[in-house]
Design goal:
The chain is α+β, with helices and mostly antiparallel strands. The chain has three helices and three strands. It has one domain.
Length: 86
């Protein structure tokens, strides 16, 4: 399964990725929380058949974790500070 994910990620059509500015504008307009990011994840799942957004837990003093979002320019690091049940 890991090989399928990696090969799909390497060969995905980068033009179907959103830009960094589009992600930031979407989060600004719809709220900087997971339900807004999930809309982009769902779009990616429709295009690529996988969820290419990585969740990376951290244990430093500033952030609890981050999402690594593939965008047209490369990768966007979106840290978060709290986890909510909603």
């Amino acid at each position: 399964m890991k090989e399928d994910y990696i090969s799909t990620f390497k060969t995905m059509d980068k033009s179907k990725l959103v830009s960094r500015a589009e992600v930031l504008q979407h989060l600004s307009a719809n709220g900087a929380h997971y339900p807004s990011l999930a809309q982009i994840i769902n779009q990616y799942e429709e295009h690529f058949g996988i969820d290419p957004v990585w969740h990376y837990p951290l244990s430093d003093d500033r952030n609890n974790g981050a999402f690594i979002v593939p965008v047209q320019e490369g990768y966007l690091w979106l840290p978060y500070n709290e986890v909510d049940s909603e």
